[in-house]
Amino acid sequence: MSTQGTPTRRRALRRAVQFVDAVATPHGIDRYIELALPTWSSTEVRARIVAVRRGSASSVTLSLRPNSNWTGFTAGQHTQLSVEIDGVRRTRCYSMANSAHRADGLVELTVKAHPMGRVSGYLVDHARPGMVVGLSPAQGVFTLPEVRPQRVLLVSGGSGITPVMSMLRTLCDEGHRGPVAFLHYAISAAEHPYREEVVRLVALHPNLRVHTVYTDAPGTGDLDGLFCEGHLAAADPDWVDAEAFVCGPAPLMDAVREVFGEAGRSAQYHDEAFTLALTPARSGGGAVTFASSAMTVADDGRTLLEQAESNGLSPTHGCRMGICHTCTRLLNSGAVRNVTTGDVVDATGTEIRICVSAPDGDVSIDL
Amino acid sequence: MPITTATERDARVAPSSTAAALGLSEEQLQELGRELDAIGRRVADDLGQADVDYLRRVIRTQRGLEVASRGLLFLGWVPPVWALATVMLGTSKILDNMEIGHNVMHGQYDWTNDPALSSSNFDWDTACPADQWRHSHNFVHHTYTNIVGKDRDIGYGVLRMSPATPWSPAHLANPMIAALLALNFDLGVMLHDVEFERVMSGKRPWREAWVTLQAGLRKTGRLAAKDYVIWPLLTGPMFLSTLAANTVANLTRNVWAFTIIFCGHFPDGTHEFTIDECEDESRGHWYFRQLLGSANIEGGPLFHVMSGNLSHQIEHHLFPDLPARRYKEVVGEVRAVCERFGLPYNTGGLARQFGSVVRKIVRFSLPERGRAELTPPTANERAAERIAA
């Protein structure tokens, strides 16, 4: 019965949408409804900020109510948040920090202000309930496997705590029985979001062991110093059997990866990079042509996006770290090097992300 | 020292005959370019929230007028309500096409990163598909402004607007064609991109033109269905009254857009250029050509909004991708630059500018012989005679 009803209903719905679009052509009905209901969209995910909590001077925790286009997420994933700052829509990636099983459907993001961060600084200073922001569907492969590992090791540093917090809360909500070790690095107790909540969770879940390291305040945490194998052993003596989920500054992730590698357990290591670690520019000195702008400049080795901006162009872009594809342009000729992977692309007509592509010799792009 | 080298090289190049006639050297053109660059740069650096807020206000006004007028037409049997709804719908369409559509599709708001205000996403409520318009207008017309043989907006390929076009008896129909074009300007702009004259002369493959035409007809069909079938049917017994209102609104938009756009480049005193003198031109000469090829219309704040700020056609052609609401604030500086370089700045009220356009349409419909007795020569012709003498 239902298999017959569904296509009929879908056809009816499609006809209704076609009719409404014919009435509102060429703008489409969304462009009218959104003027009255700012979170309305039939395709885009938009969300209203419903609560703002400022945990410390440099961070803010936002609770967002997404519209019906949001289809949920898996613990560890992130979303691209878009917010308008002085008339310009800026997009950055933030990991969901809440449990994937949260009952009220809200999404929680914790944003730490970076010294040079336009978006993070704006949100920390200006986010308020009622504000509407854009979101992307949840994305990212840094997630808890569907079949939960028996033994879990969570390692985070600084603002890298958010996806790890989501994993921790999700495991606790699921009543996960296996041992969960959580090792977190913060500058000091004042810069440690979710501190009280983690203490509460430890009291409720005997299988959870937490070690916190305050790198700038020795003696105030559970351990001292930067990450080393000793920290790992303190967090979980049987860490070699654990699946490790790591998020934080590149040196921290490199160190954990190395320890797992040396133990022959690389397959159990999973991480999420949130800062762009650039490989050094290989040469520079070639000719970079921005074809649609009829401009040719000398390559200075930086990414095409940075070079375009330095030359007075303002290409559309989003994340500036190769994730969102907003800055995608066609490669007309020549080769470019992906600064995150080192891969060289030289196929004419390929779509390249200019925020992570640097010229490799003479290059012409459709910009 | 690349700048010095460029200046030295360009200084050796003889300036165009138009620039020479006005006594401008290539070096002066370069200086003109630098001064105008600086004006544009300063405004671009100042763009921000106020510009986006303004445009969104205009969009809200337009959409509000449109929705309200469509609703009022259910009461179309009350004559004052019908008249009010018709005026509101016409106003909405003019705002949509001019202050919103034309300007957004120029990329004036691309810096906002808002997909709803992006030049590559936006479509407007007129027959010409957005992508075709971006090619024919943003690229062809704004790059080759007033170059006879390259700028297809000169006379729109159907009118004789210049002595440079050889006269033929068909041109006697100039005034009639212009009137038809004004009433059907939406279709005229759509068909403009098919480039029939280039298809006829073999410069454009007919297959390519056919694809363009099909896209144009598809969009025309969708808009016609909306205005002439669906909305009239929705109002039930008011079918004919709604049909009439929508027709009048579209005609109003057509005649208004024709008037504003023909006042942009055709009033007496706007210059035309030859392909030769614009070969390898400098940025300074490009600015010079935009200044001489465009004309402004004076009016109040509402008039500027309703013309999409194309009443500041000169500033628009100098800075086509700056938000149009900013043009009025650079008028003073642009005029000062013109005075310093001894360049004309063509501006006047709507009656004067449009009057001179009409005179041109009539004058160039006539053969050279006997024309002088019927209509006085244009300022350009007088200037050309002075230079020749």
**What characteristic shape of chain A results from the CA principal axes?**
globular
Given the C-alpha coordinates, what overall shape of chain B results? globular
Query: What fraction of residues of chain B sit in β-strands?
Result: under 5%
* Chain pair forming the biggest interface: A-B, 21 and 30 residues
User: What class, by secondary structure content of chain B?
Assistant: mainly alpha
What's the total number of strands of chain A? Answer: 17
What are the segments of chain A in which pLDDT stays under 50 over at least 5 consecutive residues? 1-5, 275-281
Number of H/I helices of chain A: 8
Distance between the termini of chain B: 43 Å
The tally of helices of chain B reads 18
Which stretches of chain B are low in confidence, meaning pLDDT under 50 for 5 or more residues running? 1-13
Element order, helices and strands of chain B?
Answer: HHHHHHHHHHHHEHHHEHHH
**What strand line-up does the widest sheet of chain B have?**
1-2
Percent helix among the residues of chain B?
55-70%
Helix coverage percent of chain A: 10-25%
Largest beta-sheet characterization of chain B: 2 strands, parallel
Multimerization status: heterodimer
Kindly report the average pLDDT value of chain B.
90
